[in-house]
User: What shape does this take?
Amino acid sequence: MTQRTLAPARPAAPVGAVPEAAPAPPRNRRPRTVTPRTLLVAAVAWFLAAVFLLPYLEMVVTALRPARELRDATYLPSTFEWANFIDVWRESHLGDNLRVTLLVSAGSTLLVLLVAIPAAYYTARMKFRGRKLFLLLVLITQMFQPTSLLVGLYREFYQLDMLNSVWTLILCNAAFNLAFAIWILTAYFSSIPEALEEAAMIDGLGRAGALLRITLPLAMPGVVTAMIFTFIAAWNEFVMGLTLSTVPESQPLTVGINSFIGNYTVQWNFLFAGSVIAIVPVVILFALIERKVVSGLTAGSVK
Assistant: This one.
């Protein structure tokens, strides 16, 4: 008589226990092959990155050169003069210029968003008569260059006794960047389904509540894109700052850096040290929100 060997019985699982999932079968991953095309694309990308980064590297090296070695035909100085950054901060109004630039850039960005968000939302949601004409007029205002309006702006703010004022630069920078913000936000609001707002209003929200709680969070990449472009445009603005601000303490950073260029000599070490200080905040800001900027640039491209 044949004897059967019985396997030990598994203990019963307690009631309500979640059964253990079976281990997933091992996947056969194929080794990733590097094609010549991939190597070529990577080499071209590194070459282009080096081309764009070399001027900035030269700017940093020149900012650290001693004054006696500014005319030497060498790639690197014998010693790095870190005191150049301290001297340029002490011997000029660079601190005041940086404060003015921060106030102007932040104030212009805030004012543009406060005006552009309601205007773009109304244009995207309401099919009113003259909508296309309004967008066309907004586009036409973008075609005007600040340089062509400087004489009129200077005369107007002179009569209002608003020269050498931070508010003057805020108003001018906001006016010249408002059209771009309205256009990009209109495209982004149009890409968001209106049914989401209708569902929110059925649940008791009003039009403003639906905008603030539903539409605006979804449109945040577009808002960030408009914000960063307005901020950078106001940060880099030079012509209006030079014309509407004549006192060194009230001038923006771009005009303050230009003061190191004299009639007969140029303080290259201080000029480049101030330039390094000027680009650091913008680089940090752009690096923090770069993903939202890229997603906002494609706003409204897919329907």
